């Protein structure tokens, strides 16, 4: 059964804490920027047809759809990893998720002990204090399913340190747009499944970054996250299989938060770095299974 406290923070001492929902009353675009509401769908090149980015729903069976919006990834037969902020904005307990077209009941949700939502005063004015907060945040959580998933192969974690310079694939079914104007504010947060490419620009500590390029520097299916699918996978090819290297999280911004426009060319996107949290993931799953 899911714990009555709702979302649990799992620290080294195994203590549980109740996590409240995301900060309310802020402008939607700002919340998407900082990851207080789900972000991470695919914004595409303006000079490439949208149809080239679209893929069948079966493209990645281990992709997890959270209710309304947001994603996760099946990484073991009874475990899903996602971005913490894809969960903390919700006002109700997470009772089920959809994997490969089937609903699966949720037994428990465990937030990383460093998963925090920003205070309201950070959501207005100059972006610098908010960006500093974002860099210190651990935006990751685990979902334990009530029963094992038998018909879907989990995605293995990327555990190396060589992400920088690698071409990655990002996947999501939320809001879209094109890089010249960015993502429209009224774009729906759940729609057709898309995948795009980008190249990892940095791999430091808890974060991977990439930049939404255009022109000669852009990949054939260059793209970046938008709104609607935080927790969506960032995949690195290792041998013949894709490994989970990151989770869609937030975008960098300089200047006044009221002027933020997401999904435009030149924007830097931050992804939760799975290799940084691999030990926490392993330890948490072992501890929960032994209880």
Secondary structure: elements and pairs:
Elements: E1 8-9, H1 28-34, E2 39-44, E3 63-65, E4 71-76, E5 79-82, H2 85-88, E6 96-99, E7 102-111, H3 128-136, E8 141-145, E9 167-172, E10 194-204, E11 207-211, E12 223-227, E13 233-238, E14 241-251, E15 268-273, H4 274-290
Parallel strand pairs: 1-7
Antiparallel strand pairs: 2-12, 3-4, 3-6, 4-5, 5-8, 6-7, 7-8, 9-10, 9-13, 10-11, 11-15, 13-14, 14-15
Task: Compose a concise summary of this entry.
The protein is an alpha+beta fold. Helices cover about 15% and strands about 30% of the residues.
Structure, described:
This protein is an alpha+beta fold and 291 residues long. The protein has one domain (8-290): Beta Barrel (Thrombin, subunit H). It contains four helices and 15 strands. The chain has helices spanning 28-34, 85-88, 128-136, 274-290, and strands at 8-9, 39-44, 63-65, 71-76, 79-82, 96-99, 102-111, 141-145, 167-172, 194-204, 207-211, 223-227, 233-238, 241-251, 268-273. A six-stranded antiparallel barrel has the order 3-4-5-8-7-6. Mean pLDDT is 83; it is low at 1-8, 10-29 and 36-40.
């Amino acid at each position: 059964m899911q714990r009555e406290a709702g979302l649990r923070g799992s620290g080294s001492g195994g203590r549980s804490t109740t996590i409240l929902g995301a900060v309310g009353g802020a402008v939607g675009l700002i919340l998407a920027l900082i990851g207080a509401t789900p972000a991470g769908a695919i914004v595409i090149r303006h000079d490439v047809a949208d149809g080239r980015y679209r893929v069948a729903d079966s493209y990645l069976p281990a992709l997890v759809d959270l209710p309304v919006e947001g994603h996760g990834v099946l990484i073991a037969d009874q475990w899903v990893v996602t971005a913490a902020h894809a969960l903390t904005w919700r006002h109700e307990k997470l009772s089920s998720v959809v994997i490969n077209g089937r609903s699966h009941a949720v037994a428990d949700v465990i937030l990383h002990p460093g998963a925090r939502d920003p205070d309201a005063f950070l959501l207005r004015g100059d972006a610098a204090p908010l960006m500093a907060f974002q860099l210190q945040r651990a935006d990751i959580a685990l979902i334990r399913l009530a029963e094992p998933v038998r018909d879907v192969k989990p995605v293995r974690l990327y555990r190396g340190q060589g992400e920088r310079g690698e071409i990655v694939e990002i996947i999501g079914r939320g809001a879209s747009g094109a890089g010249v104007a960015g993502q429209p504010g009224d774009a729906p947060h759940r729609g057709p499944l898309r995948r795009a490419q980008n190249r990892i620009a940095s791999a430091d500590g808890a974060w991977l970054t990439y930049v939404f390029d255009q022109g000669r520097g852009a990949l054939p299916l260059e793209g970046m996250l938008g709104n609607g699918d935080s927790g969506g996978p960032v995949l690195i090819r290792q041998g013949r299989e894709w490994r989970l290297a990151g989770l869609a999280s937030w975008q960098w911004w300089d200047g006044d938060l009221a002027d933020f426009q997401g999904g435009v060319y030149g924007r830097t996107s931050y992804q939760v770095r799975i290799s940084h949290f691999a030990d926490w993931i392993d330890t948490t799953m072992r501890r929960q299974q032994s209880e």
